[in-house]
Specification:
alpha+beta, Alpha-Beta Plaits
Length: 79
């Protein structure tokens, strides 16, 4: 499992958060996506790694600015 934390600016209300979430869901097979206008970020959980340039393009197409994208492995270490 992968966790992406994406800096997204321009979200002004809960509808903006929903709009970003919907655009990510339409572009990628994700397990979970949440956006926060207060933190200026979108957090995505997915089974497969995402194409970061396509992720930038999807969020930008929704009308928002994309900054840093952080990728973390959420897998459990072997015993």
């Amino acid at each position: 499992m992968w966790k992406y934390t994406v800096q997204v600016t321009g979200m002004m209300c809960s509808m903006c958060e929903s709009h970003v979430n919907d655009m990510v869901r339409k572009a990628f097979p994700v397990r979970k996506v949440t956006s926060s206008r207060r933190r200026n970020e979108t957090v995505i959980l997915t089974e497969q790694p995402l194409d970061e340039s396509a992720l930038r393009a999807a969020v930008s197409a929704a009308g928002y600015d994309v900054g840093e994208i952080r990728k973390e492995s959420q897998g459990r270490p072997p015993c």
